[in-house]
Amino acid sequence: MIKKRKIIILGSTGSIGKSTIEVIKKNKNKFKIVLLAANKNYKLLLKQAKYFNVKNIIINNSDAYIYVKNKLKNKKINVYQGTNNLEKIIKSKIDYTMCAISGLEGLASTLQAISISKNIAIANKESIICGWPLIKKKLNKFKTNFIPIDSEHFSIWYLTKNYNNKDIKEIIITASGGPFLNYNQNKLKKIKPHNAIKHPKWNMGKKISVDSSTLMNKVFETIEAFRMFNFDFYKYKILIHPESYVHAIVKFNNGLIKFLIHDTDMKIPIFNSLHVNKIKNYDNKSIDYKKISNLNFYSVNGKNFPSINILKKIPKKHSLFETVLISANDELVSLFLNNKIKYLDIYKNLNKIINDKNIKKKYSKLPLTMSSILKLNKLVRLKTRSLSV
Fold first, then answer.
1. Both 198 and 237 in a single domain?
2. In terms of domains, do 297 and 201 share one?
3. Which ranges of the chain have pLDDT less than 70?
């Protein structure tokens, strides 16, 4: 009898969490889910727990936790609030943990999960961008294997395995260009929230769809890649690739170029992360080669996508600048989605925040700790909101 691998999914009711569930459903004989965690979508969480016979669930939201705790009083399911007790709940090493809690809220749970996991997949860009030194320290301490889940970073990780900085000439992160790729400045001024949340290729949430339209997602992905992988910052480039089939391109110093191509389906990197270092059969339709017979790549228009200029300001060493960037952008996108600011104000106000003298003083003096990240996050959000008043 095959021994099932023990799995934890943090953020099981979100987009990545649900995709992970779908992958595991098709491989139930190989995996056993021992814990699921969600914020407040208790209905879906309970449905998932029942289907997989999960004995431990975590709910973050207080009202949802109290309701579920009372509902399951006499059931054989352990209900906990918050992910800060992971190390106490799970007594033995887990084979694989998917960290898919969105926002900076996911950093603390990611750090806890590392200590109890043999393999950890991280789909939370905020955790990596703001807290990579903290994550890396824990990965080394507990000898936990790390797999990035974003399609671009999974592709870079896959393409550059067993290569060093001296082997690599250039790493290209591709961008679809979003829904406003061919818009001029006049058209960009008129964009409304309902326009920005319609991505032409990927099925994503509202926030990430807006980031895709401004290309801030590629700014974040470049920072992520630079922090995660040991390659020089100047080697990273962004190219517009509207078809979205090529997720990364690596140019080697020996003249060879590698492309990684797969369908626009996050279940593919998730499946491969679950079977890390093994080639397994993925049960889906193969790519129609006619679709990839005409692939296009363009340079980024800095006038239409001014956010890429932020990459010139990224410090070589990890600092709290990244927290300022994440927090301010998150707040600005929220203000835009709630019709409090205009589309072009997202970058304009982001620039104001990262150049604010008081903010600069804060992030240049504070040490990079979990406490300072959360403190600065709160301060930046308040300052950002004040710009829309």
1. yes
2. yes
3. 1, 200-203, 277-286, 389
